Structures are given as structure tokens and as C-alpha cells.
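Q: C-alpha cells for this one, please.
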Amino acid sequence: MQLPDGAVRILLGVVAGHVPAPELLRDRLETTFCDRAVHGSWDLTQSAAELGRLVRRSGPEGYVAATLVEIDREGVARLLSCGSPSALVLPAGEEPSGDDGLRALSGNPGGPPLGLDGDPVGLIEPLPDDCRIAVVTNAYALAHYDDYASAAAESLRPATPEHAAVLLLRGPTDPSPRFDGVETARVVGPALVIGPRQ
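A: Here is the predicted structure, written as C-alpha cells:
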């Protein structure tokens, strides 16, 4: 969600566990997140805590593995990981080969998923502004059999963050091509790529 002053707030996550109506929970999360981003006093930790309470009210066995991101009007990005894989960082100007050059965002151990016990924790300090940063969900990591770093490195090769983000929506390529000979890959998004600050 982009605000009038140019700032951006992002909620990236996957509803998991036993949730009676996952689509309804997703809609409520989006509505609450957008309302807080626009009308509330914005704070990553407080916003995550509020979303966690909403998830707990939906049922005791549901949770949301999520990452909350804020990019201020100056382009400074911060994130809070709640049960999601570590964000991956590729220094600007490096050409990834396998997962060479790619590293997990240091200092970002993350906290429990939204809806589970425990306070949201993680990196709130400004993210490095000379890197390309990939944020993916648990669905992406599981689809790539936990070797998501190598898959993400390959997806980060394109010149633009927009193209890289599209590639990060994909799961592994299906080894059995369709009738027209085109290899397919199922969508396992959402994903986010933050490019170096200009």
C-alpha cells in the first residue's frame, strides 16, 4: 500500500494451520493492515502485535507466517519477520552464481508467526541501501525443498527488481512439460524485491 506522502507499507504472508475460513482471515488481515497503515500511528512491532491478536481470534490453531515491510518517503526500508524465512541480500553489482554472494540478512532472526505466542521481534534498523533484498514466504522455501537460497539467487539475476520479483513467485519447474513442450512452474508467491536506493 502506497501512502500519499510516497511511503509504502507491505504485508507479505501465508495463512497456515487450521483456520475455519482462511479467505475471510486474509481479507480481515488486509483490511486491518491497510487501516492501520493509513489512519493509525504506524509502528512495525505494534502493527504485528495487532495482526497477531486478530489471527488468534480466528481460531487457536491458525497462524500467519509473515513479513511486514515499511519503506519511508526517503526510500529507507525496514522489515519485521514473523515466522517467515530470512530476507536474502545480494550486494549491488554482484552477479549471483548458485547462492554465491547471497547472504541471509544478518541480525534478523525473526519472531514467531502472527497468532502464536510470543512478541514480534526482528530487525527494525534500516536495511542496507546498496543491495538487492529478496523477501519470500514459507511457501517458497518449502516448494524449493529448503534450498531456497540457490533458487532465489537465480531469480535475482535479472536487471530489474520487478522482473526478479516475478521469478520469485515461481516454484520449481515441473520436469514434465505440457503438451506444447513448455516447462511449467506453479505459483508459490507472494514475493518482494527491494532494489538499491538511488
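A few notes: The beta strands are 8-17, 62-71, 77-82, 88-91, 103-104, 131-136, 170-173, 185-187, 191-194. The first strand starts at residue 8 and ends at 17.
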